[in-house]
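Table 4 source record.
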Amino acid sequence: PAPAQKLTGNPALQHFQSFFLNSRFTDCPQGGWPNCAVEEKYDHCPDGTWSYYRITPSQGSDINSVGDYQVTGAEANTDGSWIVEYVATIGGTSSSFYSWTVSANGSVSGRYWSPGTSPQTDPPSQLLTGLTWVRPVNCGAKL
């Protein structure tokens, strides 16, 4: 349910964490590849692990990134939408920043800042659209 008033920070995260933890943002909600020619997905696990996968039918062109994430911002809105921002780290060295907006109907859009760029001073490195929120995620099956 939507909160009675707009929430930010930790109160917002507490409000929607049961929807966010163990969830996936994907452009192929109908069961993943091979149901889609190419699938991109971002997994968020309750233990703080995170993954990005780009799965293709072409050998050698897949991307499998697994690391950790730390939530840095959250907002829960009275219309049922929510925003989560986090830093994702791969291998303890390369940090990226993500800002996601999840609508009440489960559609997701995001902004991505690559390592070495800042959401405070730089435009996003990539706009992420056409994604859907789904759950659960098989968080025990990471690379």
